Amino acid sequence: MINFLNNNREVPFSLFRKKYLKAVKSKEHLPYAVNISSVSGDGTVDSRFVNLKIVDNEDFIFFTNYNSPKSKQFHNNNQISACFFWKTTNTQIRIKAKIIKSDKLTNETYFSSRDIKKNALAISSRQSNIISSYDLVKDNYNKALTRTDLKTCPEYWGGFTFTPHEIEFWEGDKFRLNKRNLYKKQNDKWVHFILEP
What we know:
Strand content: 35-45%
Mean pLDDT: 97
Oligomer: single chain
Largest sheet: 10 strands, mixed
Helix content: 25-40%
Shape: elongated
Low-confidence stretches: none
């Protein structure tokens, strides 16, 4: 589940929360899963799903290994796109945003609240590195489970915060008469546009 803090009352954020809660009520399997696309050093685009954990005012936050390829891509180019799709409500939400590392207190607070089994994996995994076998992955994980510091956030793990400057709400309809509402931040104000299907 996404934890909403300091709810922003501006239309795109209140609308996002409303549509998220509708998806949850409709029993969407993974309503917090969001596809994040970033640009690699050679200019190619890379995408992956992450679990969005927090929406704090206008900031969307997820957590990962800071040594991962995506983290390096975020560092090299801080513009990302994000996309939610909720099948149960036939809703897609597309976001363009700037991304930065979350602050240390956010990382430490969140890490200490997690189950130690999840933390053991975060500590044991050198995310996306090549390894000789899955058995070795399990061995490293089981060794990490014996550690006494599983509530202490490592320096190489933490959050990323992305702040939207464009949000599009797409709702599927019969005969592809889809509804598309776009909100763009211009001069510190959100401007609303209706798009053709």
